[in-house]
Amino acid sequence: MKKENCILCQVVKGKLPSYKVYEDSKILGILDINPITKGHCLIIPKKHSVWFTDLTSDEGSVFFKAVLMVSKKLKKAFR
């Protein structure tokens, strides 16, 4: 998918609405618009990537640290 057609890139740019649960300079966490369960969210890199395996080691480290942090907060909130 091309960056200009990417829905998640549009969310990152603020062109589409979202409910943010986490944000830093490189990562965005948003609630899923079609949640499977309460608190279901997406953690995405702000840099366009089709697969998380396209990230560099440093980018992947930042990404998965955010995933772990948000996951722990959700687990605590929704025991």
Question: What would you say this structure looks like, in words?
Answer:
34% of the residues lie in helices and 18% in strands. The chain is α+β, with helices and mostly antiparallel strands and 79 residues long. Strands 1-2-3 form a 3-stranded antiparallel β-sheet, covered by helices on one side. Strand 1 (20-23) and strand 2 form a beta hairpin. The model has no long low-confidence stretch (mean pLDDT 92).
Topology at a glance:
Layout: H1 7-12, E1 20-23, E2 27-31, E3 41-45, H2 57-77
Antiparallel strand pairs: 1-2, 2-3
Summarize the entry for a quick read.
The chain is an alpha+beta fold and about 80 residues long. Helix content is about 35%, strand content about 20%.
Helix fraction, binned, reads 25-40%
Distance between the termini: 36 Å
Question: Largest beta sheet: what is the strand line-up?
Answer: 1-2-3
List unreliable stretches of 5+ residues.
Answer: none
Number of helices: 2
- Rg over CA atoms, rounded to whole Å, is 13 Å
Helix/sheet category: alpha+beta
**Element pattern in H and E:** HEEEH
Gross morphology is: globular
Largest sheet: 3 strands, antiparallel
Number of DSSP-assigned strands: 3
- In percent terms, what proportion of residues is strand? 15-25%
